[in-house]
Structure formats: C-alpha cells, structure tokens
Amino acid sequence: MKRSIQCPSCLTPLGTLNYDSIPQLRCTSCQRKYGVVYGKLSQRSSMREVLLYLTAKLPRFYKRHYEFRIITPSRSLQVLKFSVPGAEDGIPVRRGDMISLLYTTQGYVLKKLIAITNHTTGSDYLLPSPVPSPGYLVATRGTVSATVFLSLLLTGANIFLLSMLSAASLLLYAKLAHTAQLTSPPLQMNVQEESRLLADQKLLTQKYSLEQRLGELKHESAANQALISQLDSLKRKMLQFDDKLYANRIRRTTSAVGILSKQMSNNQRLVSEYSRMIKMIEIEVETAQIADQLPDAENFTKTILRKLAELKHVEEYNQNLRFQLEANEEVRRMQA
User: What is the pTM of this model?
Assistant: First the structure.
C-alpha cells in the first residue's frame, strides 16, 4: 500500500511517507502547514461515555474516547488521546496497522487533530470537525470566558453568583468539549515493548555515530593520501640530490609513509566494517517496525555491539599511529 497523504483542505498530495519522513509538511497549493506522526499502531483502546441519557425515547448524547499508541520508524513512542462525538467506534484502524496522524501545528505542538489515515488498508478518517488540544482550547475559550466575566463584573453583577455560574459553565463545557493530546512518554525498562524500543534507540544512536565516524575516516584517508604524495615527492628530491646528506631525513620520511599507509589500511577496514554495521542496524530497526517481536533480535544486537567492541581496538591502534606521526620531524615540517 502506497503510504501517501493529501491536504484535507484542497486535496493536494502532501507527499509519500517512508522511514525518514519529516514531522512537518506544507501544502504546495494552499500553503497550509501540517504536523505528521507516522508509524505502527501498537495498541488501541476505545471507550464510550454517556453525556446525556434520560429515557430510551428521548435523544441520547455520547462521547467516544480513544487512545492510540504509535511506534514511529525512529523507534519512539507517540501516544494520542482524543475524543469524538457519537457512540459508535467508527475509526478504521486496528492494532498492527501503519497509520498517520495529520494535524495543524502551533510551533511544533499539536494544535488541532484533523485526520487519521490507515496506510495498511488505504482508508481515511476525517474527523467531523478538527479536535483542538487542551492548551489551545484553554487559550481560546478561556480568553473569551475571562472577557465575558470581566464585562459582567463591570456592570455590577453579583460576584458570588457570577463566579458560581462561571465555574458551572466551565465544568459543563469541559465535559462536552472534545480534545486531542499528543505526547511522547518516557519509556520504561520493565515494559517489554518499551524496553525493546530503548534498545533500538541505542542502536540508532550508534548508527548516527558510525555515520559521522565514516565521514571522518574518509576525510582522514584523503588527507593521509595527500601527505603521502608530498612525502614521496620530497623523498625523491632528496635521493636525487644527495642520499647520504639526507640519509636521516630519508629514513624519517620512509617511516612516516609506512605509518600513514598502515593508517589508511586500518581506515579502509573500519570504513568497510562500519558500513556493514550501519546496514545491519538499518535492517534490524526496519524489521522490528514490521514484526511485533523478533525471537533472535537480541542476538543480532549483541553481535553488532560485540563487533563494535572489536573495532574499537583498531581505532586505538590508529590513535597510537597518530602519536607516532606527531613525533615524526618530517611530518611536523610538512604540516607547519
């Protein structure tokens, strides 16, 4: 199923979601900005609340509360709690589905929940009306209520009676109003699913560190190659001019080239192994996003960490080679 979403205002495609989806999108047609949460629905709960029920013959009013726990491709947990009018559970998403939430934002925070898309089945659910966050609701309705309260107070209304009516109105409104709240709660090690997410997050952190280290190693190898070329050129000139006169410097230059060559060889090994580790981490994280629980996931994680520990010795050996280079007089002259 193609994981794409569209602007609910003008139906312009907003883009295709993937494992690297950005959290905010802008419609190219109407320029509206939306926040997006995309991931796998790990848990779903729904509860009906009776707002008004007098008799079977009179109209009845209900509210339905939902809680969605969504695991994103970055292995974070997002919890959405919201309510909609009505008694029936009409949102077409089930545990294990890949879904996305579309909402308007205030900065990077949810302002109003607009739509829910089930990318597994291809169905969309557009909320009857955008559901505001509690903060946005308080900011807007609270300002109006305070203005009305002060206006009535200035007209000489009874303060006690006015306060009681205001409190009752706020409680009633809070009971009837629908809100949506999106949070990212701290993960707990004693919860199996969350402990797995913590382990995956550590792997992703390791992946980002490895990617940064790859860039450093490639830059270092390029710099070493340039330095080797300079040292070789200098050595040829000294040999051509007077090999006996420059015997000590030729020896130091030869030693420096040997150290640099060892470094480059080690760097090539590190680049190759780190690239393999990055691919392994990507496979593990993406597979974990698909499967609820992998029986051998912990073994793969241990394999990755054990291999990284082995490569640490290569890094330490390279560090010793750097110290030797720093002590080489010819290298210091070239880098001065």
Answer: 0.70
